[in-house]
Design goal:
- By secondary structure, the chain is an alpha+beta fold.
- The protein has two domains: about 5-75 and about 240-275, no CATH class; about 75-235, no CATH class.
- It contains three helices and 22 strands.
- It has helices at about 5-25, 225, 245-275, and strands spanning about 35-45, 45-50, 60, 65-70, 75-80, 85-90, 95, 105, 110-115, 120, 125-135, 150-155, 160, 170, 175-180, 185-190, 190, 200-205, 205-210, 220, 230-235, 235.
- Strand 7 (about 95) and strand 8 (about 105) form a beta hairpin.
- It is elongated, with a radius of gyration of 27 Å.
- The two termini are about 20 Å apart.
């Protein structure tokens, strides 16, 4: 059987996967925190047609998808004016807790307060953070800076859900400020994996940590200011899908699929000619 026919089949499969990926990107063009994917190709094993002493005579056996990468470049910010809508300016993810106890990562900052004023995401998962307490000296008196402002400590040894005060705001450091006392009560937990493309997508703009994203799959969470990112309250990070780019890639994938299908029909015509030689 002609090798070109099998090469055409592998090409059609690869471009079908590319079309599937593009379709998913376009479907999520308005999804908060969505990160688009791209499909990469590689050639398959080549068959040697000639011996040693000359340049290799090789015939390729088609192509395959080498990877489907998630691109974590930032999406466009959208101002909402809602105090519980939060966006991370920088390379970091909010830490949330699944109802089954798993700790997950998300860029989707469209949070809300439940009946107990606990901060949750759109799927009902609790947003995680750290308790902040006044810093005390050896005599138990509050520690203040040169300007007389009280200092606070953040307990990073234990992640807790965030019980939001009645009147609050979230500052750029990711601290939940009680507007009645003008003091921070919680700090949002943020994680910045060394290889975010290694995270495992599980839907709802949420990710699961893996050993490919961080050594040993460790969350390595910290406060926003310690990681070096800024939290913008009243904003959302939207999808990073560019429709112009996706439609261009769709045309490329469609033509690639058509061209590979033409290889199959052409190979079939050649086989038909070979069969007709017996007449």
């Amino acid at each position: 059987m002609l090798k070109s026919m099998y090469s055409g089949v592998t090409g059609m499969r690869g471009f079908q996967t590319k079309l599937d990926t593009i379709g998913n990107n376009i479907a999520n063009v308005n999804t908060v925190g969505y990160k688009k994917s791209r499909v990469m190709f590689q050639d398959l094993l080549s068959q040697n047609m000639g011996g040693g002493g000359v340049n290799p005579k090789q015939v390729g056996l088609g192509s395959a998808n080498s990877s489907i990468d998630v691109l974590h470049n930032p999406g466009s910010p959208m101002a909402t004016g809602v105090s519980t809508d939060l966006a991370i300016d920088g390379k970091g993810f909010f830490l949330i807790k699944h109802t089954d106890g798993r700790e997950l990562l998300t860029k989707g900052g469209n949070f809300y307060l439940d009946q107990n004023r606990v901060l949750k995401n759109s799927q009902g998962f609790e947003v995680m953070g750290y308790k902040m307490d006044p810093q005390l000296d050896a005599n138990g008196n509050p520690v203040v800076d040169a300007a007389g402002n009280p200092q606070f400590t953040t307990d990073k040894t234990q992640r807790v859900n965030i019980d939001v005060p009645l009147n609050f705001t979230v500052n750029a450091k990711g601290q939940v400020i009680d507007l009645d006392t003008k003091q921070p009560v919680f700090a949002l937990a943020v994680s910045a994996p060394s290889n975010p493309s290694g995270l495992n997508k599980i839907g709802g703009s949420t990710y699961e940590m893996t050993a490919q994203a961080n050594p040993n799959g460790a969350l390595d969470d910290n406060t926003a200011d310690a990681i070096g990112v800024q939290i913008n309250s009243g904003q959302l990070e939207m999808s990073n899908v560019d429709l112009t780019e996706e439609f261009t890639e769709m045309i490329v994938a469609q033509r690639g699929f058509q061209a590979n299908s033409k290889i199959i029909t052409t190979s079939d015509e050649i086989l038909q000619e070979i069969v007709n030689l017996k007449r």
